Amino acid sequence: MTTPVIDGWFTVDDGTAHLLGTRCADCRTVHFPPRTGPCRNPHCDGETLVQVRLPRRGTVWSYTNACYPPPAPFVAADPYEPVTLAAVELAGEGIVVLGQVKGLTVDDLHVGMELELIASPLADGPLVWMWSAPGTGDTNGADHTAKAGTGATRAPGTSAAPERRGEGVA
Amino acid sequence: MREVVILGAGMHPWGKWGRPFTEYGVAAIRAALRDADLSWTDVQFVVGADTIRNGYPGFVAGATFAQAMGWNGARIASCYAACASGAQALDIARTRILAGLCDVALIAGADSAPKGFFTPVGGERPDDPDWLRFRLLGATNPAYFALYARRRMALYGDTAGDFAAVKVKNALAGSLNENARYRATVTAEQVLASPMVADPLRLMDICATSDGGAALVLASEDFARRHGGSRRPVRLAAVSTVTPVFPNTVLDLPDFATDSTAAVPPPKRSFRASIAHAAYEEAGLGPEDLSLAEVYDLSTALELDWMEDIGLCPPGEAVKLLRAGDTALGGRVPVNPSGGLASFGEAVPAQAIAQVCELTRQLRGSAGARQITGARVGLAANQGLFGHGSAIIATT
């Protein structure tokens, strides 16, 4: 399956993934996820938000992992391998974007290191944006024809994630 | 300005029983009324802090509690602001008293929490960021707590041992609190041996989800004077319910991204710091005046963030205070003398109210083995999902 998990948040062209944001035509504030309607800068009256491709590289603001399978609607792989997450500050845009990390564990990451955007499939098939080591962007296995806005299907999580040990956490 | 005082505080102990939330709320309400030496029929205004995990009765918690207590004709409100719901309820009740529209108000919150990670409310809702963050990323609440914790380690050199020391401190305080869910003391070794949940946070670094209920009786100063009583009055000096200022540069639950600083530079204070700052301004007090603070330790590391955000020390120096014992019972300014979320777990709509119950007991001098000598000023701070600030200052 090569459809994106959500419409309009990222695009893949010739194997190269970009997050899609919107930029205010008046004050140039960037929004991700992409917004319509008025600019979120409260000092700006701008109402024209233009779709832009966001920088593909950024530096790690922080990172973690999910040692237990996250609950539905996430669909965890079986057998489960911890999902790595990184919050990455995009070069030049002053915005931090959270994503899964492909091909790296928490042991490979440190705050301030550079990562690059790719698109990669979730366990149940649809594509999502992910962060990866720079240079892996052209060989991420994403189907080259996958484009945002081509009728994403969103399969709800059908297999409930196993209850984690203990009494649960907030 | 007229003043609002806290006449009564009541709690149902925290635990995990799965009984109806109304039961916990009613027990807390009855305890608060006994504490205030008032009857349910004396209450003129009721505010319920809602729970979203217990069906329709939870969405209209004010009426649910009022019906369970027996309809008394009081005016009513129900409100939801995630973890800050209790502060919202307090603010609504306080405002009504300050406006002269009533003399006696009661607020209550209670929850019956599911097992496991908090998950989004049911159904497929691709327009809801709280649903999407699970579907797209598997980003649970502890994942966000862990991002903050890892950043502390990178920026300030905090260690897993420091985080464990927060749990040890709070467990010791909680062992002295009859309303806490976890009453056992723990060692740093136990924390560090507990299973990793979201690196670098382990199971014992992260607060549990709990059942519990808490309630407060508020009154105008005039009513309190007429009502008399021998107890030391506790005054509500400030309630801060501020929202973030654009651009919010800390990744907050349940967001996918921060605001962008491309057009507007970051504000002087982070969102969390602005929550406490607004309360200090309203009370005409500062961090140097605090006798104690109850802060929202969803994780051990987050308590350290809050210490800096409420101004107990500059950014990066919380561990210094922790290691010096300043924030332990008997220290210079105890933090989470109740035992905090580490000892209670989180009963969402009750938690901000429970924080104020602890302030009330400490300021009255009735906190028993946890009593902070000469407590005069207490601050309770927390942050509700989607940008709900919550800070309360109470004084003797």
Detailed description of the structure:
The complex is a heterodimer of chains A (170) and B (396). Chain A is mostly beta strands. Chain A has a domain at 55-168. Chain A contains no helices and nine strands. In chain A, strand 2 (16-24) and strand 3 (30-31) form a beta hairpin. Chain A is globular. Residues 139-167 of chain A have low confidence and may be disordered. In chain B, helix 4 crosses helix 14. In chain B, the strands form two sheets. In chain B, strands 3-2-4-7-1-8-11-10-9 form a nine-stranded mixed β-sheet, with helices on both faces. In chain B, strands 5-6 form a two-stranded antiparallel sheet. Chain B is 38% helix and 18% strand. In chain B, a hairpin with a 3-residue loop joins strand 10 (377-384) and strand 11 (388-395). The two termini of chain B are 17 Å apart. Chain B has 396 residues and is α/β, with parallel strands linked by helices. Chain B has a domain at 4-117 and 209-227: 3-Layer(aba) Sandwich (Peroxisomal Thiolase, Chain A, domain 1). Chains A and B meet through strand 3, strand 5, strand 6 and strand 7 of A and helix 5, helix 6 and strand 5 of B.
